[in-house]
Amino acid sequence: MTTDTTSYRIGVKFTPYDWAIFASNQFGIYNSWINGSTVFDPTMGLGNLLEALIKIGLSNGLKINELPTNRLYGNELNDYFYTEALARFKKEYGLDMSANFSNSDFFELETKEYDIIFGNPPWMNFTDLPAEYKTKLKPLFIEYDLVQDTKKMLLGGSRVDIAALVIQKSIADFLAPNGNAYFFQPLSLLLNDGAHDSFRRYNVKGTDFSLEEVYDFNEIKVFEDVSTRHGLVHYQKDKHARFPIQYYRNIKNEWLEKRAAPILTITGPLSIFDKDAPSPLFDFKSIPLNKDSKPRQGINTSGANRIFFFSSYEEIDEHNCLLNDEILLPKIFVFPLLIADNFKPNNGHARRWVLLPYSLDGKPLELEVIQSHALLWNYLELNKSALSNRKGQMIQTWRERGYWWALLGVGKYNFTKHKVVWEAYGRKTFQPQLFSGRWQANQSLQAYIPMSNKKEAQRVLSALKNPAIEHYLHSLKMDGTMNWAQPGKIRKLFIFSD
Ligand SMILES: C[S@@+](CC[C@H](N)C(=O)[O-])C[C@H]1O[C@@H](n2cnc3c(N)ncnc32)[C@H](O)[C@@H]1O
User: What's the gap in Å between 188 CA and the centre of ligand 1?
Assistant: First the structure.
């Protein structure tokens, strides 16, 4: 069964003419077009990018029939936009573009080569696409080298942006050898850890393409109502990426010339640094660490904080405690939970607590064990329906195995004697601290390195306090965001052994 996708509105944000003209000026797109190049926008919307080239020609004093409009090509999925584009080129310039514009899903469009691709693809995470479109596109993410297999797609891979797929396909199937491609695009493809590592191999179906230059709009809002960080990026086909590249960042309406390169791993996110400075961590030596101590995110209740987290704790007797002034639970399953205040000086006392129905080997308690603790069983049973109805692939897998009381991010690493913990979310400084005892880290707010030996924990702590590390984190341009110092980034600083 094929789905009619022509009425889809996926990632619809048209590029203002001024910015399309800006792109043409930076990269000489207009001049190449006038001098014989074909130009193609694979997801053209109303055709603003192509029309901007006409506008430049007219403002240079040329007449419409003196411009090579027969070398402008576009394609659009949505039939309304496609029809509007044709009507607009007719009305404004008297042009019949029906031989050059197509109304097709780009992923079904017949392959043809163009000298220049000038595009602004839809931006949307795979996860957020319409369900039946996801089914259709899933194999393409694998075919165009963005995800290794369907399983990965369900986990981290699902955060891959459809923009990456449009770019990979454009370069692989529609760009002439050595051709240039220019895209307005989300910068997550270049700057975020994880989902876009495969894109950053800059290779599609065995063909290399290079990342040449980036304009990071930073504080400028090119598109209304878009909070995603975006930029204008130049790629060239059949060329190896050579780093560092030129990276222009707009700060207070000025384009500052910087340099960018992946640091620590080839497919890692770009670090951005001053053009006369050495790259961050240029003389850094990886920190040795046992693989059992890999950096981790905190525990995740899958939306059930209300059930697992508590804001007051009172010891009742040797075995039991009173939580939130009303809930009695066995002390052995209740742990202090870190909050931001605990990272301030002299703030070592607990203010939040978390229930972990787990054994110290990191496995969820078996039903009989829970039932042998009457208070624990009563409490969990009371919340059974809310706990069983939690959404998300991974928590559902636990539920299917019978463990409807499970949390995510809990393993034997939660129960080591020491943890080197840092605030990973929304911060601008990197200040790891050592917490000993039963402390637990909270979801993505904090990340930690579990350590059983105090001396080792102090060694790791002092290695992480190297100011070069904070400098490196700043170069990733994630200050104040959820991605500030998540475990994936910190993991790359270590070399792991058994
Ligand atoms: C961000 S807008 C940009 C439009 C135009 N390139 C511009 O810069 O003004 C993305 C466009 O891609 C279209 N689109 C989304 N998925 C598509 C697909 N699979 N094939 C072709 N066009 C698609 C959307 O309808 C939308 O018009």
Answer: 18
